[in-house]
Design goal:
GNAT_dom; 30% helix; Ribosomal_N-acetyltransferase; GNAT family N-acetyltransferase
Length: 203
């Protein structure tokens, strides 16, 4: 287990299956706010479902692939970040995030994702870090910009239909390892340490 300080009384640490009850309570608070931007399978509606979400990421960790981390603000789980995928053979990963409204505007996501990219590039040798969002998700697009990412392109109507039957475009942003290492001042996040999930629960 590790705690990485994010400032503002916040820490980043692994989010594991044994924390399913806390994760479920957090999702109940965040559900309406994050529902337009995250996959339906992420939005568990009870503790058993929350445990299954976290087990999927724990299994991903065991395969050296997906990983999930929570952000705690004043001791309360308010959001998190993840490696949606991590393919060390190809040298490509995708990072993502979610956050409760009460924790927005503090720079927590930018600092947390910086930790993930530092580890992916400096420890795992990842060459390309991707960020996937939609054109209407202004907060997500702004995080990508603050991280020094470039917009590679738009995949038109590539997302499944929403509840009202509307298909949405998907934007692909990225930063390359060389760009990350040579870019300007990074957010102050402290010492880089290797993120890991310690509980690898079976399905």
């Amino acid at each position: 287990m590790f705690d990485l300080p994010l400032g503002d009384h916040a820490v980043l640490r692994p989010l594991e299956p044994w924390q399913a009850e806390e994760f479920a309570a957090h999702l109940d608070r965040a559900r309406e706010h994050i529902a337009p931007w995250v996959g339906r399978s992420f939005l568990a509606t009870d503790v058993a479902g929350a445990r299954e979400v976290l087990r999927r990421y724990a299994d991903g960790q065991a395969r050296d692939d997906a990983r999930i981390y929570g952000i705690w603000l004043d001791g309360v789980l308010v959001g998190g970040t993840m490696f949606v995928s991590l393919d060390s053979a190809r040298g490509v990963c995708e990072v993502g995030c979610w956050l409760e409204p009460a924790a927005e505007g503090r720079g927590l996501i930018t600092r947390a994702i910086t930790h993930l990219i530092d580890w992916a590039v400096d420890v795992r040798g990842i060459a390309r870090v991707e960020w996937v969002t939609t054109p209407d998700n202004a907060r997500s697009r702004n995080v990508a910009k603050r991280l020094g990412m470039s917009l590679d392109g738009v995949l038109r109507q590539s997302l499944p239909p929403t509840v009202d039957g509307v298909r949405r475009d998907r934007e692909i942003w990225s930063v390359l390892a060389d760009e990350w290492r040579t870019r300007g001042e990074r957010p102050a996040v402290g010492t880089v340490r290797a993120p890991h999930v310690t509980d690898r629960a079976p399905r």
